[in-house]
Amino acid sequence: MNNWTRKEFLKASLITSGAALLTRNRAFAIGQAGRSANGDIRIGIVGFNAQGFGHLRNYLPGSPSKLDGAVLAAICDVDDKVLAKGRDAANKAGLKVAEYKDYRKMFESKEIDAVVCAPPNHQHSIITIAALMAGKDVYIEKPLSHKIWEGRQAVEAARKYSKNIALIGTQNRASE
């Protein structure tokens, strides 16, 4: 068993989750209407005050951890200070992103292919379901839910909206 530092664990988990989204979408993105011409996956991030800010950095140009083939297209957070923090990070990297305070509005955008969600834990299931219903692929931080019933609803949504992928953050099982 590896004894990883927090930094190593976070890097491995972000690369693994991003790679899963990119691999799946890259196969379908080329030639599909509504997708970007260069085949990049346009990412929207919901909630990025803590764990989500690590995700945000992985989609910024010039970042050492930048994931190839993924472009940060939108950020969403209900807190104006957190939204400003994300805007500032994107601007500093030379990137202009759409901003939302309501994730449902972000999910309506045709400019978003996939969603990375790291809001407070009690919102994970409902945001996962909403993203799938909107036709978005979704990576959601763990835990998926606080109650078994909520988790089952999210699993049912993933089955129902099976053209999209839902990946829950179980990095220790998904990494090398």
Number of helical elements = 7
Segments where pLDDT lies below 50 for 5+ residues? 23-34
Mean pLDDT: 80
Number of strands: 6
How far do the termini sit from each other? 11 Å
Q: For the report, how would you describe the main beta sheet?
A: 6 strands, parallel
Please report which band the strand proportion falls in: under 5%, 5-15%, 15-25%, 25-35%, 35-45% or over 45%.
15-25%
The global form is globular
Q: Report the structural category.
A: alpha/beta
The value of Rg in angstroms is: 15 Å
Fraction in helix = 40-55%
What does this structure look like?
- With 176 residues, the chain is an alpha/beta fold.
- The protein is built from 7 helices and 6 strands.
- Helix 2 links the parallel strand 1 and strand 2.
- Helix 5 runs parallel beside helix 6.
- The radius of gyration is 15 Å and the shape is globular.
- About 7% of the residues have low confidence.
Helix and strand arrangement:
Layout: H1 6-29, E1 41-46, H2 51-57, E2 70-76, H3 80-92, E3 98-100, H4 103-108, E4 114-117, H5 124-133, E5 137-140, H6 148-160, E6 166-168, H7 171-174
Question: What are its keywords?
Answer:
alpha/beta, six-stranded parallel β-sheet, 176 residues, 6 strands
